[in-house]
Design brief:
Helix content is 29%, strand content 22%. It has 89 residues and is of the alpha+beta class.
Length: 89
């Protein structure tokens, strides 16, 4: 029997991809929104492609706000874009 590959949808481009190829962004109970490089952090998670365009598109179309169901300040988006420099392909 073939093993099932977990798929997740990118909040930027909307494509469904293998979970291991995406980056997880997590919203913790403390209200912090950060990139979860290990994929194990507690909190509500959403996924984004490893492309900077997808992150910018998710910020512009408020993809993270819809996924986390909270308003996100501009400085959080700026810090996510800075953190994203570490995973650019």
């Amino acid at each position: 029997m073939e093993k099932k590959i977990p798929l997740r949808q990118c909040v930027g481009c909307g494509e469904r991809k293998d979970k291991r190829t995406l980056i997880r962004v997590v919203h913790t109970k403390e209200g912090e929104i950060t990139i979860d490089f290990k994929g194990k952090a507690n909190g509500r998670g959403t996924y984004i492609c490893r492309k900077r365009e997808c992150l910018k598109k998710a910020c512009k179309n408020k993809g993270f706000e819809r996924a986390f169901k909270v308003a996100i300040p501009e400085d959080v988006y700026n810090s996510l874009i800075k953190e994203s420099e570490a995973f650019e392909e």
